Amino acid sequence: MTRSAPQRGFPNAEFEARTEAAQAGMAEAGLDGLLVMSEPEVRYFTGFQTLFWQSPTRPWFVFVPASGKPIAVIPEIGAALMRTCWIDDIRTWSAPNPQDDGISLLRDLLAPLAAQGARIGLPKGHETALRMPLADWERLMAALPGMQVRDATGLMQGLRMIKSDAEIEKLRHICAIGSATFDHVPDFVEVGQPLDEIFRAFKRAALGLGADDVPYLVGSAAPGGYVDVISPPSARPLQHRDVLMMDTGCVWDGYFCDFDRNWAIGAGGDAAQRAYDVLWRATEAGLAAAQPGHTCRDVFVAMSGVIGELDESGGDIGRLGHGLGMQLTEQPSHAAFDETVLAQNMVLTLEPSLSYGGGLMMVHEENIVVRADGAELLSRRAPAALPVLR
Amino acid sequence: MTRSAPQRGFPNAEFEARTEAAQAGMAEAGLDGLLVMSEPEVRYFTGFQTLFWQSPTRPWFVFVPASGKPIAVIPEIGAALMRTCWIDDIRTWSAPNPQDDGISLLRDLLAPLAAQGARIGLPKGHETALRMPLADWERLMAALPGMQVRDATGLMQGLRMIKSDAEIEKLRHICAIGSATFDHVPDFVEVGQPLDEIFRAFKRAALGLGADDVPYLVGSAAPGGYVDVISPPSARPLQHRDVLMMDTGCVWDGYFCDFDRNWAIGAGGDAAQRAYDVLWRATEAGLAAAQPGHTCRDVFVAMSGVIGELDESGGDIGRLGHGLGMQLTEQPSHAAFDETVLAQNMVLTLEPSLSYGGGLMMVHEENIVVRADGAELLSRRAPAALPVLR
Known about the structure:
Two copies of one chain form a homodimer. Chain A has 390 residues and is α+β, with helices and mostly antiparallel strands. Chain A is built from ten helices and 18 strands. In chain A, the strands form five sheets. The first copy, chain A, has a six-stranded mixed β-sheet, with helices on both faces. The longest helix of chain A has 24 residues. Chains A and B meet through helix 5, helix 8 and strand 7 of A and helix 5, helix 8 and strand 7 of B.
């Protein structure tokens, strides 16, 4: 381990504060309740943490009333774990049940509100999904005449974007583990090694350094530079003059790091070195711009200005960084369209990318927390020049 | 590595056959197209494989027309990888774009069909989710007056339940890696070791034996038996007389194993030994029942009959096994409600569970492929008596 680990989990006060903040936002938005069903949202309000979400079979629901504790409507298989959480009202059914996967329980819960023409919030906007069968959602709505559903995406985003001190400690810890793992790369990477074996070695190293999981590791290695940044690894052996990139999302206690590193194998070509230098300085510009009161757009513009030295298009990935927390990518986005005002305790990635050399691309990424006086790095800053593995 | 690995990926003929089978099913159901957006469905038709789905930011779409190759409507960041797949028509946008995350591209693609009052299929039933913002779905439907949307859950389930020989080879390979990893457990587990460290050691072992990833590992260890089967590991040190259970979904080339193993630490109590024996024999009954022509319900009844020796409730997990493939759990379910007729080349789990000893529970799981003459094990059969780690 690189450092002593923080405490796992959260005191109940954390969930109380989250719920109260949600309820304050609901009151402001005129919402009589909030229905969530995604893994991070259910965890946000309850602390319910399990990998069982990887089974798509069963839906899970949490309803946040206008006052009082959240109510869980979940499959019976999750009851024992949910009972260890801070909430009291846990309603379960024997799932899967294709005829009624929680729908009548939800209807019974919401019918009194629907009868009053209540408004409930549902995150149904940008970056959300409906983690239940659409047909069941339609059936539930048909069973709740009078219920008004409003988009609560902005409300949830506003809550989750600002991290608590305890969340930041978890994020700092997993970023330190990610940094330590990248530091070890020269120990287990060598010319001739298949890329998929390098990926396995990376994951084993991260686990050995204290990561709970390495759910995300993508990257590439190709002569002089790479063309794709989301592929699984090939079995191609690493070659002299390759540029190697690995981008990882490691997890500790349910919180992600998300950053990447680049290496030249044996020797770095001029074009790759130049691209790296531009990206490193673009990140410096992003670090300087990531201040409370500035917008995500400001951070985007600051990085784009440097990227423009080499690549006027700025690439077509759509943004130059994003929020980070219980998910690999969270709102907001460092993009021209995002006017979100940065605030203290936002945890963000800075992720400039560019195209160069006729079809090659390069990415570079750091993780930060916004403090009163600007960006504090959570990842250990990448070296200023493209490192060479010999 | 436990054995030489199969070829990664699939020949184009595999995707052609999948598409033709889908189109035959669509014709039978009177569908003029099929819209899918989940990771396994997009991969099923295109071969597009990436961990990038872990970012919830961007939606991805594939449309299967009544004839011809599927059409991808995807974020530009996936274009390079999608171009390595067999399909030709790839339409991209610079995502994320909160104003238009693929919706106008989808509208342009589907508008000619909508104008004819066409019927398109969408998986919107049991075990599905809508992996796009609900508000965007509603906006798309509003832009396509005349379009009729039909539930295609049964169609997709029917296609994906029957595995090709190439898929079965991948599943066999990852099940062999899972079995080999469980065989190594006595080498890295000892009394006094914190459970979370045991989990890390398990993942490192599986990676070392050739797994691409270990995205799913849950389990418990507690005196005489456990009470919960979906928790992340605690830091509690393993103790003499604990029953330890680990349940893993390892992945190779995008295909999952999903089975568990139990051990008594030092000595197994009578109650745990008895529960294990019942579950082992319930699995034998399931193996005998898993024949072409029998139903999932038949398999459930066969296993329940044995479980009833000890636990008349049969627990409340809702089913005693499920399909297995690109997801940790797929349809069908071994449950009283599921009349799916077993057919050759279905890959399934047999997963009996029971409650015993006043609040304890135990699970047991194997992975099989249904052959003409019955079940063929893909996992190495668990020992007939509760193994003791000394």
